[in-house]
Structures are given as C-alpha cells and as structure tokens.
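To: structure subgroup
Subject: Chain for Friday's discussion

All,

I'm putting the inputs and outputs inline so they're searchable in the archive.
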Amino acid sequence: MSFIHLPNNITETKSDAPSKKKLFYPINPALRTYLKHHGREVTLPVTYEDLARITYSVPLKDKNGKDTFWETAMYDMREWEYIRDGLLSIYAILKTEGDLSFSKHLDVARIDYCAFGNSNPFRIRIVNKYNDNYDHFYIKTADASRVYGLELEHILSPNRIIYFTHYNTLVEEHIPGIPGDIFIQTYLEQPITNKIRFAKEFVKFNERCFVRLLGDMRSYNFVVDITPDIEDFQYRIRAIDFDQQSYEGRKNLYLPQYFKENYQLVQLALNHLNKDSIEQYQTEEKTLMAFRVAASRYRLMELFKIMAVDRISTDPKVEQLKNELANYFNSKRFLECKSMGEIVKTNLKQTLHKNLLMVQKAKGRITD
C-alpha cells in the first residue's frame, strides 16, 4: 500500500477533488428485494417528502455562535402533529423494533435541515421529557450507492449499522463520536491523546476505505470514537457519510491519506510509525476483513450480484477507475469490469486474496 511512500506535501488538484454534486441513483427492484429479505425495508409513517414541506427555517448556530451549515426547520401546525407522531414511531422502529410503549415520555425537540453536501439530510433530535437526555437520527433520500455503502460498512467494517428504507426514504441511526475535523483541532495535540494508537487506527481506517472503495473520507466525513482502556485509550474511526461509495473515477479519492484535510493525521502516522509497523497494521486490518468476508460470504455474494449490474456511477468514471486500479495492481482483471459493482468485487478479491487463503487454512486447522 502506498501509505508508507506518501510525500510530505499533500495537494488536492481540481481533478483529484470529489465531484461537487453527486448524481442520484434510485433503488432498483433487485436491491429492494434484497433490502426486504434482510429486514432493511420497512413501512415508515413519515417520508423525506413529508419533511421537505418546510414552512420556513432559521440558521442553527453552535454554542460559540458559529454557523453550523444546518437550519432548524419549522412546519405548519396543521402538519406538525402528523410529522411529530411519525418521527416518534420511526425512532421506536430504530431503537425498540417499533414498540411504542416506551415513547410516551419522548418528544421531537428539533428538526434540522442541511442544504450543504449531496444528501441534504434532516437530523431529528429526540428528547426524553423526564430527564432531558437526547438522541438523533437522520432521514435522507434513498440513493442506491449510499445504500450499498451502508451495507458494505455493516458487513466488512468492525461496526454494525442500523438503517431502514421505505421507497425513496432512508433512515439512518446517529453514529456517535467526535467529528474528525474537531478532533484534529481540539484533541489531537492534547497530552492525554495516545498518538501512536491513533496513528495505528488511521492506517487501519485508510485500509478499510480502500479495500471496499469508500471515497471522500475527509476529516469532516468521519468521527472518532474514544474508549478508555487499561491505563490508556483506544480509538476507532468511523465513517458517517456513504454518498461516495464507489462513485468517483480517481483511485486516490478512496484513500483518506490523500486529502489535505487529513494532512495532520498522515504526518502523525509517518512520525510515529515505521514501515514495518504500518505494514503490520495493514495486514491486521485485511485479515479481520477476510474473516468478515468468510462469515458473510453468501450475503456478500447476493449483494455483489445486484451491485454488478446496477448503475451507480457514470461510464467515464468506471473506465477511469478500472484503468487506474489495473495500473496500480498491475492486474488486467480490472479491465474486464463493466460496472462499479464489479470493480468493488474485484478490488476486494485483489486486496484480500492472501488473507482469505490464510483464513481458509486457519478454519481447516480448527476443523481438523
């Protein structure tokens, strides 16, 4: 992997930058059937279109008075009760499999809308009226590539993802953590931060993104989860934006190390890890992914069968990516790919081939 050869100056040219506005791809019937089979397609009482009927909105500021790029949405009172009750029901679907008996002490505190970015999500804040504790979830347009991204995250990453679809509406749970850009600004240089452990996690996150071709992982598109451990802390970087799942044509856009927003994290890794350590952590992560592939083999096969014939990017981007990966790996297998789905499947096989063989041998020894 090119991480160990990264130059000290990271620059993002216009051709390297992600597309400013990603195309929308609807969920096709085969993917819809897959979602139903795996319990992801449910009947939702409120849709994205319902929330889009905003009467007016006001800018949302953070506690320091700075613009958050979110707006608090306001609705006509004649629609508010319907929307409020529907959102509480959706929260029950996310948290208690639809059991509404726990929702009597809950309320919708706020609905925020973000016009910045591709997905234009609504963020719902649910508050416990008894103790003022709050939680969030998101409602977005159900874009097919975003759904593929969520599924691959659920299957291949160390994180489980709760989400549901209903026709053109997508509901996602809130992924807790410190936004990556805030972590870099506020926490990275604190004495309590274990920089070596965090550098290790960034290397592994970089590997996870590239293997499954999740793009645009700039610092504000992931969060940092910090867990107290024996005498110290452990770190987990979690993607929170799956819009750029196998959409772009540039290979480097699937490597977080190449974004200028992540420059400090790259420098951290290069300062605290040597070549052998980086290769060790990359192998560790690929081995873990190989175990996940083996554990979810049939589900992945079902997903890739659908993804391989689905259109989730443009033809020029497909051609560019398969050629760049063919050159990078010196493998003609990529040139035979006709879709982004086929490229992801081929990249998974290419990057995890040795690790999958090791997992198969390990299983054989356990069976014997």
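Points worth raising on Friday:
The beta strands are 56-61, 67-74, 106-114, 122-128, 134-141, 163-166, 169-173, 178-179, 222-229, 232-239.
Residues 29-141 form one domain.

D.
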